[in-house]
Design a protein that fits this description.
The chain has 243 residues and is α/β, with parallel strands linked by helices. It contains seven helices and twelve strands. The longest helix has 14 residues, at 74-87.
Length: 243
Amino acid sequence: MEGMEAAAQHIGRGVMVYTSKAHSFGTDALLLADFAAPRPREQACDLGTGCGIIPLYWLARGGPERVWGMDVQPRAVEQFTAGICASGGEGRLLPLLGDLRALPPELPRGRLELVTCNPPYQRGTGLLPQDPAAEIARHERLCTLEEVCHAAALLLKFGGRFCLCQRPERLADAVCAMRGVGLEPKVLRMVSKEQGDTPWLFLLEGKKGGKPDLRVLPPLAVYQEGSWSPDLQRIYSILAHKG
């Protein structure tokens, strides 16, 4: 990773993720990784993977069989690649530099069981970050929510799942974007800081070719009585596992 300062972080079971100021991860990515819950024999793709935290988190949990992690920013892909090499994930985790608006040929179209994306939350308006990497990650400068869903629909087989996280004010946008490309919203879960608080995030799963039937899960709270909630303790327990 020439010319880039990145710190190695152990996230459990011998898995390492390389984070930097430009490409790190937060609780939302871990919530999405857990929500998507890939099965061991599945093939998956994480769009806009950044440092690769979602594929690497899955590796620490034992699956799935193969995951492509694609990002448009070269340094993000370098960090993800370093994490794969340090974690022994070669052959199972496949880093890929590419733009989801023009999917590279290495990605198998119409054959994946799962696609995930932690997309830019902002529409690209308002005050923009001075750091170009932060601008790309947080604002829809290089892709829109509709383009993210379109890419996912191209990659998924019939019955495949697309999971994303977004801010609650964009729930209608996400539902419309999914339905517009044949991904029927099937599972929704709201996330709040404390139980009873206004949600700050939602997790949504769409199914390619699915019939209308949305299941709303109980809300997930991050904190409970000043500590991690049981859900967060379970999710973060992977990161604490040193085996």
